Amino acid sequence: MADESNRTAFLEIQSRMIETTAKLKQVQNQMRTKEGEKKRAYLTLEELRQLPDDTNTYKSIGRTFVLEPKSVLMSEQEQKLKDSENAIASLQTHCMNCTSRRVLDSEGDASCDDYVEVNSGVKVAEFCRLGVLIDGERH
């Protein structure tokens, strides 16, 4: 009887570990994508700053290039940079808070109820709600 309950507990821990690992990889991939977007926006912004104000600048829309003022392109790149930084910061802080504080109980209710949904649609709270079992106790 005790062996069966230990086996069941082990299988539950194992399945949660697999789920947690998959969610963690999704979040890491999303963070990597956001880092790439941030870097691209930063480099584009730096190149735009070097151009004189009267330079004709073009925005790529699909296969078409549309003439846009330099100021419009710069503001778009600044916004992309800020959005990427905010998304990365919220992903990092939210997951760090959830995993380091171990605030989850057995029903999955937590102080981490609010979730961060970034452009790809990954819900960080889903990752945080998985919980962690340590020595047979949920933390």
Description:
This protein has 139 residues and is mostly helical. It has a single domain (2-138), classed as Helix Hairpins (Orthogonal Bundle), CATH 1.10.287. 62% of the residues lie in helices and 10% in strands. The chain contains 3 helices and 4 strands, in the order H-E-E-H-H-E-E. The chain has helices spanning 2-50, 70-101, 124-128; strands at residues 57-61, 64-68, 133-134, 137-138. The strands form 2 sheets. A two-stranded antiparallel sheet has the order 1-2. The protein has a two-stranded antiparallel ribbon with strand order 3-4. Strand 3 and strand 4 form a beta hairpin. Helix 1 runs antiparallel to helix 2 (70-101). It is rod-shaped, with a radius of gyration of 22 Å. The two termini are 25 Å apart. Mean pLDDT is 75; it is low at 101-139.
Shape: rod-shaped
From the 3D coordinates, which CATH architecture would you assign? Answer: Orthogonal Bundle
- Helix count, per DSSP? 3
Please report the first level of CATH classification, the CATH class.
Answer: Mainly Alpha
GO cellular component, one term: prefoldin complex
Keywords: Chaperone
Family: Belongs to the prefoldin subunit beta family.
GO molecular function: protein folding chaperone; unfolded protein binding
List the helices and strands and how they pair.
Layout: H1 2-50, E1 57-61, E2 64-68, H2 70-101, H3 124-128, E3 133-134, E4 137-138
Antiparallel strand pairs: 1-2, 3-4
Helix pairs in contact: 1-2
Protein name: Prefoldin subunit 1
InterPro entries: PFD_beta-like, Prefoldin
Family: Belongs to the prefoldin subunit beta family.
